[in-house]
Design a protein that fits this description.
Blueprint (H helix, E strand, L loop, with lengths): L1 H19 L4 H61 L2 E4 L19 H10 L3 E6 L11 E4 L3 E4 L2 E4 L14 E10 L2 E14 L18 H32 L12 H8 L12 H17 L7 E4 L3 H4 L2 H18 L6 H15 L1 E9 L3 E6 L5 E5 L5 E11 H8 L6 H8 L6 E10 L15 E7 L4 E8 L4 E5 L12 H4 L1 H22 L3 E3 L28 E3 L6 H18 L2 H4 L11 H40 L8 H6 L4 E4 L2 H28 L9 H12 L9 H43 L1
């Protein structure tokens, strides 16, 4: 029914459509249909274009997403690798109950197996034991990343570990370390000596500086030892104070006086050297310091020399050239402007001339380089090792608040020091004791101060707290003595040797001055004063009534009976003794004319002086120059400021020794060259009788290099054995060529003579 009705309706509409069309209707309709079809095609093309662009965008999006996923994967992989490689050592949570940790009955794992097990483990801990159980209150550490490396006795951590004892408790000691993998102990390392650990900060904050460094037992030990060294130095101080007054008045009042600003204020404005009437010792000390500086460490002469103990190795040209270049570099580093070696060495020699003992520091400033400092003996206390060499130095200094902050930084200060900084109490002063001594517990597995053979501890004396702990590969403070007697700790100086003469010459000079004053302005003698006592002695003064009727003076000078020439001679004798003690006779060699002397005479004179100074040369070299230069070389090599060792040196495992070629040591060694020249001179008359055959006893090659060594000739000026051989071969070739040409010339002459003879014979 519905279908029939719908068809009828369609027919009706069709009839109405046909009725409404005109004759042109089909044409218009066809055009319209064509237009619509064209629009449809364009729309289809646009849709296809959009679809293609969409597909391209989708494809690019998929590619970008894939690249993003790959980048994320790479980043995650790199992050995982970084987390694995980066070595981290962190403090873990201490267990509620100490675990049983100590020696293990199982066999010891090899380093390879142990490293494999560490790589496979998820949780890696190092716990600390007293030998049987875990130390209560000391948390274990967790280790992540590649924080392990092979060691001669197993494996070791490459990162430092900082420990602190229980909060508010006493310091404790650790007997060994246990390695736990996933909660199970797999290895044990026992210490040769128990390690003391300081207490941790308590809740009140009353801690002494950096508690990671604190060791109450160590502080007490150092302070007890310091009191011992103070008592050992005390008998010398009165002598040093008198020497300062007599020989170096500008330093009077420094020995035994308070340090810092208080000490400077107590000495400021005071008259120094008031008891001195003669300045011979004062001037001699200045000349001693200047001349010693010029003759032992001359700035314009390269006096540092390196060599190797292995003679065969030391003779190799490449090794000698390396030694020369490295020595030149050390000399340049030493005399750089910021190092101040020349200035500080002069101060050092002044102390040596006064006290006979002089501390000298070699340090480095970050970003600047090596610098030197002559440390006042007033601040230092020393001790010797079993061989009689100074191996312990206590330096007691007074710091103002500002200097303390600059030296140690805020975090290292004690509460009292921090309070002074916070409240800007710059006038407050604090005493700090620095102890530099051999490290009694060197740990080869550590790269911080605990692994270095020389230990340095800075202690705040009032609060008995450690401000800093450091370590050195070589002794940073070198103490030399002018002369040291057997059994004596401190050295003797030129001033000590002639102190009686210094006292005497001052007394005699005072007497001569008083006698000369009497002679210039004598006392007056007269019979009856009768008003004569009111004499006018100024120039142009009038004194009526002082002559009698006969013109004779009623007032006459009182005879003094003084004999000034004898007094002056005695003073000069004492002055000569003082000057000799300060080596002024020896230093005359620097100024005496030698232009009219032969080389042999110069060497003989130098040799004689060298005999006198040989003891001083040995003392300086052993106690001052050698340690200072060895530390210079160590710092320069670690900083990469000198060339690496030649391959032959590395293969030999050798280390250079330090020698000196300054005028002082050359004088002490000049006898070798003198003996050789005398030998040659004595053989010269013999050579006239045997045609020079006696000179065959001289090994000229060895003598040439030996003389160059004694006289300090630079190695770069000396030809190598290969160069010498090449020169000799070239000379032999030239001589052979010349001999050959002469032989050819002689043969040609002989042929010419024969030809002429034949011609003469034929003509006859």
């Amino acid at each position: 029914m519905s279908d029939t009705n719908e068809m009828s309706r369609e027919q009706e509409l069709l009839e109405e459509f046909k009725a409404g069309l005109d004759k042109d209707g089909p044409v218009v309709l066809a055009q319209r249909v064509a237009e619509l079809e064209a629009d449809r095609d364009r729309a289809s093309d646009a849709v296809a274009t959009v679809q293609a662009e969409r597909d391209a965008l989708l494809e690019r999006a998929e590619t970008a997403e894939a690249e993003r996923d790959a980048a994320i994967a790479r980043a995650e992989k790199a992050d995982a690798a970084t987390r694995k490689v980066t070595a981290q050592v962190k403090k873990a949570t201490a267990p509620a109950k100490p675990r049983k940790l100590g020696r293990m009955s199982s066999d010891r794992l090899s380093p390879e197996v142990l490293l494999d097990e560490i790589d496979d483990a998820d949780d890696i801990e190092v716990a600390f034991s007293d030998g049987a159980r875990e130390v209560p209150g000391i948390a274990p550490i967790t280790v992540t990343g590649e924080a392990w490396k092979r060691h001669a006795f197993g494996v070791m951590l490459t990162e430092p570990v900082h420990l602190e004892g229980p909060q508010g408790g006493a310091s404790t000691r650790i007997a060994g370390y246990a390695l736990l993998l996933d909660g199970k102990q797999v290895a044990w390392c026992e210490r040769s000596m128990p390690l003391p650990i300081a207490r941790a900060p308590n809740s009140t904050g009353e801690v002494m500086a950096d508690e990671k460094l604190q060791d109450d037992d160590l502080v007490r030990e150092h302070l007890r030892n310091h009191d011992r060294l103070v008592s050992m130095r005390a008998p010398w101080e009165s002598l040093w104070r008198e020497i300062d007054e007599r020989v170096s008045p500008i330093n009077a009042g420094t020995i035994g006086a308070p340090g810092g600003e208080a000490g400077r204020l107590s000495r400021a404005g005071t008259v120094k050297g008031a008891r001195n009437f003669d300045t011979t010792a004062v001037k001699s000390l200045g000349r001693f310091a200047a001349a010693m500086s010029a003759i032992t460490v001359p700035r314009n002469v390269q006096y540092i020399r390196l060599r190797f103990q292995n003679g065969d190795l030391d003779k190799l040209p490449e090794v000698r050239r390396w030694c020369e270049r490295t020595a030149d570099r050390l000399h340049a580093i030493r005399y750089a402007a910021h190092a101040a070696f020349a200035v500080q060495s002069t101060k050092d020699f002044r102390q040596l001339g006064r006290y006979g003992t002089a501390p000298f520091a070699v340090a480095e400033r970050k970003g600047v380089g090596v610098f030197y400092q002559a440390i006042p003996l007033a601040e230092c206390y020393i001790d010797e090792d079993y061989a009689g060499r100074v191996d312990t130095v206590h330096r007691r200094r007074t710091f103002g608040t500002r200097q303390l902050l600059q030296e140690y930084g805020y975090d290292a200060l004690t509460p009292k020091m921090r309070d002074a900084v916070d409240n800007r109490k710059w006038e407050r002063e604090f005493e700090v004791l620095q102890i530099v001594c051999p490290n009694a517990d060197v740990r080869a597995d550590r790269y911080d101060w605990q692994g270095k053979p020389i230990a340095s501890t800075h202690i705040a004396i009032d609060e008995k707290a450690i401000l800093r702990r450091a370590g050195y590969h070589l002794m940073p403070i070198c103490v030399s003595r002018h002369m040291s007697e057997a059994g004596e700790l401190y050295g003797t100086s030129p001033a000590m040797e002639v102190l009686p003469s210094i006292r005497s010459v001052n007394v005699m000079k005072q007497t001569i001055l008083r006698s000369a004053h009497k002679m210039v302005d004598p006392a007056l003698a007269f019979y009856d004063d009768d008003g004569i006592t009111s004499l006018v002695t100024r120039p142009g003064g009038l004194n009526p009534g002082l002559v009698d009727d006969g013109g004779r003076l009623l007032v006459k000078p009182l005879p003094t009976g003084s004999n000034l020439p004898i007094g002056i001679d005695m003073v000069n004798e004492e002055r000569a003794d003082i000057q000799t003690a300060f080596l002024e006779d020896f230093f005359k060699i620097l100024t005496d004319p030698s232009d009219r002397m032969t080389a042999t005479q110069v060497l003989e004179m130098v040799s004689k002086q060298g005999v006198l100074v040989a003891p001083y040369a040995g003392q300086y070299e052993t106690e001052k120059q050698n340690p200072v230069t060895q530390r210079d070389l160590d710092l320069a090599m670690r900083a990469g400021q000198v060339e690496p060792f030649p391959d032959v040196v590395i293969e030999a495992g050798a280390h250079p020794l330090v020698e000196y070629e300054n005028p002082l040591t050359r004088m002490a060694r000049a006898e070798q060259a003198t003996g050789f020249t005398r030998w040659v001179e004595m053989m010269t008359p013999l050579a006239q009788t045997d045609g020079g055959a006696v000179f065959d006893h001289i090994n000229t090659d060895e003598a040439a290099t030996g003389l160059a060594d004694v006289l300090g000739v630079q190695q770069s000026w000396i030809a190598t054995p290969q160069e010498v051989a090449a020169k000799r071969k070239a000379r032999e070739d030239a001589q052979a060529a010349q001999a050959g040409s002469q032989q050819i010339s002689d043969i040609a002459g002989a042929y010419l003579d024969t030809a002429r003879a034949n011609q003469i014979a034929q003509a006859a």
